[in-house]
Structure formats: structure tokens, C-alpha cells
Amino acid sequence: MNTPFRDARGFELLATADEVREMDRRTIEELGLPGRVLMELAGAGAAAALAARLGDVPGKATVLCGGGNNGGDGFVVARHLVDRGWTVVCVSLKPGDALTGDARANHDLWVALGGEVRVVKDKATASMRHVIGHADAVVDALFGTGLGRAIAGPAADLIAMANAATDGLKVAIDVPSGVDATTGRVAGDGVAFRADLTATFGVAKPGLYTGPGADLAGEVVVVGIAFPRSVVDGVGASHRLATASGVAGLLPARPRDGHKGTFGHVGVIGGFVGKEGAGQLAARAALRVGAGLSTWATPGDAPSRAPEVMHHDLRSGLPARPNVLVVGPGLGTDAVAADALEVARSDGRPLVLDADALNLLSERDAASAAAGHVVTPHPREASRLLKSRVEEVERDRLAAASALVAATGAVVVLKGARTVVAAPGAPPVIFDLPTPALAAGGTGDVLAGAIAGLVAQGLTLHDAALCGVWLHAHAGRAAGQGRADRGVLASEVADALPHALADLVNGWT
User: Fold this and answer.
1) Which of 31, 207, 327, 493 has its CA 20 to 30 A from that of 56?
2) Domain check: are 428 and 308 in the same one?
3) Is position 312 within any domain?
4) What is the pLDDT of residue 258?
5) Where are the alpha helices (DSSP H) in 346-496?
6) Residue 54 has what pLDDT?
């Protein structure tokens, strides 16, 4: 195991299947580091990760080996587990004489050392079910990042047996078999190994943090296999995983001699008749994240509101003082709402566009409709902007986020259990922060207000989106006191934002 590769800002690098294959090729072919050395490091690191998870107490392990290099990794894992005192059985999809290269060499070494291999012929057997079901650990080394088809036949049988086993730690090698390393989809909508722990090699893959792959991977541990940093940078990793240190480094400075004018002013256009709460939540969140002032703008007289939030009547035009505007929470989609959106879009100030503003934009040509602004769609709103279906958005959230950037020219916050932030000219960032407590009305309004509050304090739109998503997720957890996954109110999430900020500044991860 090693410290994952990170970029200059502290975000973890994520590489697609093609990128990792190219890193592997350059390391072996151009730098001359033998592939068998990489395989040895991978297998040894995976065995160490497994042992660490179980307290390094020896037990019985069953290693499922495929016919390619992933299977070779499995034989290395088996050997290192034996060295740690484990009793190990390997179940292989192919006999040794059908293997090639480094996989064959490690199979033969395993056998030469007295290791047991049970070869699957026409189908998995009852004895294989037994050694899988009664193992303290089941290791999936069937298929790696190169799989592009649905798993069927004996391999599917072995995976089903492993998934049905009620005891034993389930460990995936590199990626769970059946999971697309890039998108997180299950290949061909077939079966996939459900892991408790995934030991991924060299650089983590985005498919381990999005789509079904995020749930199938379990805990992800990166195992170093001697990829030089120069190779990783030369190939380039196209995605990022948000980290506490990376986000903390983006937080705006808070000078001790600052005053309310120092920390910016957020205007919220929304919360029109019948949906007043949405506007108030966004305005409240802007203050809770540190903005100095917040104004709620509606077409009419001042409604009842929190005493800290000012009000502006839109019948006299937009409020002049705010330096950033939130448009959309509780806006509605009638002619009055549409006019308010168009006035805001032509104003020149940065906008955070959410909810009904996105629904109104989806009725227009989306091209460059939000360029220079932030959009915060949930999957259904995203599907409307892309003129697609929700299922298509969820099938590949990373592709959907990039498509939204191309269509709108905006910084995109594609909301969900694992939110994606994408922006022109920047790698998409995944937030591995599933927070069920946020599945409640109004929490999206809180996120929009929090992002605007950070923009008001001087952050770029992209940095504000990154910080806002992180703080919002942790505020949801804090509002549930780290235990409740339901019953949390949006106002409680807004009020927990200062706690999330304090925890981040103080190094909470």
C-alpha cells in the first residue's frame, strides 16, 4: 500500500482503464521494469491489505483466478497469504498450460511451492461452492480493467457463489469483476463481484467511486506497483477524487479585521409565492457558510423571514448590492419567473442556477445558456438540459457531467449520492460522500446558497462548487449527528455548515 497519487491541489488522481493500461505499458516497455515485478508488487500489496483488514490473523482463503493477468495477480496473492500463515485454495478458470506470460509463471510457482489449484471445467462444482462458502476471505482475481462484456458461464457461477456466501471477507483485485473501471457500470448488465474491500493497483479508477461500482467496490485501498510519477503525469489521469486536504486548501481566508462588507453579499431570486421556504433556505445557507450579507428578492412586499436576511422587491429591478446571485429555488416556471431569470442572466454578475431556473433553461437552447455561471442539477434536471433520459444520466454520470459542461459552458454540479463537479478545462471531481440524510426537500436550496456564499467571499465559481459540495455533505452528516440517515431538515443542514467548516479547518477527514 502507498499514498495515492495527488495533484498540486491535493485531490487524488483517478485514471480510466485506458489510461492505466498506458501507464502500465510505458513502465514495462519504455522504462524496462518487468511486468512480473509489477505483478509481484500488486499481489503482495493486495495480500497485505487483506491481512490488515482482518488484523493479520491467519485463516482460510479461496482465491478465484481468471485466465489473464488478473489471475496471475491472484496466484501472487495466494502465495503471500501462505507466507502469512494462511491456508489457501486457488480456483482457476483455466488450467496452467492454457495460461501465458506472467500469469503462467506465477501459476507454476504457486504449484511448485505445493499450492492447490482447482480448475473449473464445464461448470463450478459443489466442492468449489464449499471452499468459497467456508472461507474467511474470498479473493476475486477473475477479471480486471479490460473486461468489456457481460460475465457468463463458470465465472458467473463463481461470482454468484461468492456473493451468496454469508461469511468471510470479500476482496476484489484491482476492480470487482464485472465492473467497468471507468464508468462504474456493470459490464453488459451482467453479474459482478460484490466486494467488502478492493485493492486497486497503481492509480485508483473512477468506476470505483461512481455508479454501481461504488457500492460493489466497498472500501478502496490503492496498492503501489512502482508506477513512476513521471509516467503517471506523462499519460495523465483525467479524473479526480475530492479530499479533505484538497478542499481545505481552497477555503477563503478569514482576516481578523474583516467586517460584513469584507465577506460579500448574496442575493437570492426565488422563493416566490407558495415556495417561500426555498428562497429562505438558500439565503440562510449563504450566511451560514460565511457570507457577510444576504438578500432575498421576490416580486412583492417583504414576507416573513429570518431576521438576518434582508428583502428586496423585484418590481424595482434586481438588488444592486449583492456580488453574486442565486436564481431558481422556489422560482416557479411562469412568465414572472421566466422574466426574472432573463433579467438575472443579462445582469453580468455570477449566478448559481438551481431548480426552476434549470427547468426554464431546459426549454431553451442550452448551448452556452449558463456560460460563466454555476448550474446545480439533480439527475432529472440534467436529463432535461441534455434532452435525454434520467436512466442515461445515471448510467454514466461522469459522461453526463462533461456533456452538461459542453452544452452550457457552466461549472456543473451534478447532484446525487456521489456528486460530480465538472468545469470547462478542468478534470471532473467525484465526491465519495454518500449522505442519505440529504435526501429531503430543501437541501438542494441549501447547497445553492452555500456555493453562492463562497463565491461572495472571493472563491472562483469552480472552487466554490468544490468547497460547497464537500461542506454540504458533511453538514448533512453533522445535522444527523453522524448517526441519523433520515429525518434531518434542510434548515438543520444549513445550520450545521459552520460545524462542517470548523471540522474541515481543524483537519477532520
Assistant:
1) 207
2) yes
3) yes
4) 86
5) 356-362, 379-386, 390-395, 397-408, 443-456, 461-479, 490-495
6) 95
Which residues span the domain enclosing 21?
Answer: 12-241
CA-based nearest residue to 495, from 482, 473, 478: 478
> Residue 236 is placed in which grid cell?
495523465
Q: Are 449 and 413 in contact (CB under 8 A)?
A: no
Grid cell of 257 as nine digits: 479585521
Residue indicated by cell numbers 477563503: 252
Q: Which of 154, 32, 40, 35 is nearest to 93 (CA)?
A: 154
Please report the beta strands in 301-415, taking only residues with DSSP state E, as ranges in sequence order: 310-313, 324-327, 351-353, 374-375, 411-414
396: which residues sit within 8 A by CB, 6+ positions away? 183, 185, 211
Whether 401 and 483 map to the same domain: the answer is yes
Residue 277 and residue 133 share a domain? no
Can you give the pTM of this predicted structure?
A: 0.95
Residue 467: the pLDDT is 98
Length of the chain: 509
| β-strand partners of 327 | 269, 353
**SS3 for 188?**
helix
Question: What's the structural domain count of the chain?
Answer: 2
**Residue 199, domain CATH:** 3.40.50.10260
Summarised one tens digit per residue, pLDDT across range 461-499 is 999 999 999 999 999 999 988 777 889 999 999 999 999
C-alpha cell at 148: 468489456
The verdict on residue 347 lying in a domain is yes
Is residue 359 one of the residues assigned to a domain?
A: yes
Cα dihedral 63→64→69→70 (10° resolution): -90
Q: What is the pLDDT of residue 363?
A: 85
Contact assessment for residue 448 and residue 352, using Cβ atoms and an 8 Å cutoff: yes
Tell me the pLDDT tens digit for each residue of 181-193. 999 999 777 899 9
Q: Is 458 left (phi over 0), alpha (psi -120 to 50) or beta?
A: left
Question: Which amino acid, one-letter code, is at 172?
Answer: A
Cα-based angle 48, 54, 59 (whole degrees, multiple of 5): 90
Give CA angle at 470 (468, 472), nearest 5°.
Answer: 65
User: Could you tell me if 271 and 237 lie in one domain?
Assistant: no
**348, 223: one domain:** no
Q: What is the DSSP letter of 2?
A: -
Average pLDDT, the chain: 94
pLDDT tens by residue, 192-213: 999 999 999 999 999 999 999 9
Higher local confidence (pLDDT), 116 or 259: 116
Beta bridge partners of 171: 139, 197
Query: Quick one: CA torsion of 182, 186, 187, 190, rounded to 10 degrees?
Result: 170
Among 190, 192, 183, smallest CA distance to 162 is for 192
Residues 407 and 364 reside in one and the same domain: yes
Q: What is the pLDDT of residues 229-242, one digit of tens each?
A: 999 999 999 999 99
Count the Cβ atoms, other than its own, within 10 Å of residue 335: 8
> Domain for residue 196, yes or no?
yes
Distance from first CA to last CA of the chain, Å, rounded?
19
Give the model's pLDDT for residue 1.
56
